[in-house]
Amino acid sequence: xxxxxxxxxxxxxxxxRYADSFEELVGELDVNRRMLFDCPDEIxxxxxxxxxxxxxxxxxxxxxxxxxxxxxxxxxxxxxxxYRVNFRNRPDIRYPVVVDSRTEMIHVPRGIVCxxxxxxxxxxxxxxxxxxxxxxxxSILKIHPQIYKYLHxxxxxxxxxxxxxxxxxxxxxxxxxxxxxxxxxxxxxxxxRTFSLSADCRVVYGSDEAVQVISSLPHKVHxxxxxxxxxxxxxxxDRETIESPDFSLMLxxxxxxxxxxxxxxxxxxxxxxxxxxSVTIKDIAGRLKSAxxxxxxxxxxxxxxxxxxxxINTRARYLLxxxxxxxTSDDLKWTICINDMISLEEPVxxxxxxxxxxxxxxxxxxxxxxxxxxxxxxxxxxxxxxxxVRELAYHGADRAMVAGMMHEYxxxxxxxxxxxxxxxxxxxxxx
Amino acid sequence: MRLKDSxxxxxxxxxxxxxxxxxxxxxxxxxxxxREEILLPVIRAQxxxxxxxxxxxxxxxxxxxxxxxxxSLELVPWVPVTMFKEFDLATVPADDIVKILRSSGTTSQQxxxxxxxxxxxxxxxxxxxxxxxxxxxxxxxxxIVIDHPExxxxxxxxSARTAGVRGLSLYARKIIYLLKKEGDTLTVNPDALLEIExxxxxxxxxxxxxxxxxxxxxxxxxxxxxxxLNLSDAxxxxxxxxxxxxxxAVGKDFFAIEIQKLxxxxxxxxxxxxxxxxxxxIIFPDCECGFKHVPSCAKIIIxxxxxxxxxxxxxxGLIEVMSILPVSYYGQALxxxxxxxxxGLDGCHCGRRGMFFEFLNRVERAEIRGCGDTxxxxxxx
Lengths: 431, 381
What we know:
CATH architecture of chain B: 3-Layer(aba) Sandwich
CATH topology of chain B: Rossmann fold
Largest sheet of chain B: 6 strands, mixed
Number of domains of chain B: 1
Shape of chain B: globular
Structural class of chain A: alpha/beta
Oligomer: heterodimer
Number of helices of chain B: 9
Structural class of chain B: alpha/beta
Number of helices of chain A: 15
CATH superfamily of chain B: ANL, N-terminal domain
Number of strands of chain A: 19
């Protein structure tokens, strides 16, 4: 990649161009964002929801990984819920939020949100953009050039979306005109610094090293920084669940969680703990194998070659070690490593999961720390589940989900209400 | 070709005898069908014998493979070559081990340990001699090592460079080390250079060096001091370090042009070779047409990196190297982290028979990992 900013075609940019600074682009976005600011909040949601409906019908977009989930996530009800939890109001309510008898508050956009998008999840940038857009911000997405092909198609589709509200027709261009995608070498300190200084809010996704470097870049004093750093996810099944008739169904849902995004997401499970029960761990692994085998071929995307090698080597380690057991597909579709160490295994990714039997699921709790994001929790007894969630949260976990829901892009995420962090709250005295 | 003796490799026949007689078939004279017929019974027996190693037994048992019933070479259980860094894969009693090769390779800090007994060493040496003779002719020659003498010091660690030097020196009448160490830096040794210049004009020599070292140490020195050798009867074997050369946009052709200019070696005798410490005894030099051929004692399978199935001709995949040479460790089927592709199954214009292939690159470690890239959790029982 050249030591220049590549401003991709799409969003507010008509033609791909190279630049040395972000000044011009920021100026353009700043002008355009007024139109978004004046657009009613519920219209933005309706446009996004309409877009969600249309993308799933468009065959030219079918190859975008995660498209069906994006469509589902853009349902009007879901967007309304995200809006409500972040902005404490319904989108169609014009009244301010009451603070007390003398004060109210309203939210306004922060301005330009700069997103550092990691390349592991192709549509991550789009999810991040929607959160910024709900707060009526303009966005610059720094993307890996490899994911441009997906985002570009989506932006082109979004700008074609229209909705009629009374006598007024609104177009998706209201949203796309305040978005731009850029690529530049992150190692170029000057470009990274100027990008950071362009932001009224910084949203950073990435590995520990990446977020440390980006977080330490100079930034505007008023700019907030939202960090979605490296996270680890796992699953827990208690004895009662394992012995319940629904257990196989839950394993099937877990299989989907394992396979989605080639296990490269922070919400991907790497270790699965099963409490000791009448079903042996070998039997459970066999049932998980059946669940993985039952998934459709189209869910399995080719693995990055480096990750494929890691899977091959992990398999060999388990095959050569007579104290451990393993189940594998003939190809690299899935790998189930079985051992009895009470530990969170280092992620291999590439649909390679470690399953373990534990005498008591409480033994897992000391392993949890702030690096843990999602725990798929399958505990039948409500009281036990509630207590367990509190303990997980106390130790540092961000999300207690169930199998099949691990990747649902919920609010809050990583312990934060992301869209709410991208707005300013203005205090207004009541008359 | 027709097999010289159809009863040559009976399953019950001693493996050692089978290995010693493999060269009766020539070095590069087997087609793939004959290779399958000849090697499969030997490798079946070797795999069965390897079950004395608990790791190999675990490996084979978990794959539900009966060594005696392996239907084809493609289905011989392969072990990733990096496992020598983590497991003792010896298949003979510890008392029989006379040497442990320790190879750090070029891209990892961990060391592979390859246990060798006398028989394996003999097999490897014989194989190397046969392969080199095929490329250099029957006479022993002067060997110019483009490295420093300590690289071959038995007290030092056995690196990929050491393996190359030691292996190729089997064919040497006399060895000249062209480089020397000054502190931690490698440079050309002027005395060695003088000795080379004083060799008779038509003295046949062969040279070996690590590609990156030749490029980064030797060539700049030759350019700086206006040195041009005239080794018109020489053969250069070189290998390793291509990743660094590709970074500075130096390809095989440009490398050969520079070597020809400065060493006087004809371009068709500048032979890039592929090999590894775990399969010492087998090297794959380029033929005159630029391809790599498989000696009779070995087989190459290129595996699709997603399906692990053998690739079709021309399809890029991981290189698996099979060999009947090792008897002291399980080296019958080793999957490398290198990629290559089959060029053809027979009929290379150089005249060597059987499958020929090309090495492409070493697989890069995963780059894009993002928010799922968690560091070690520091937890455990």
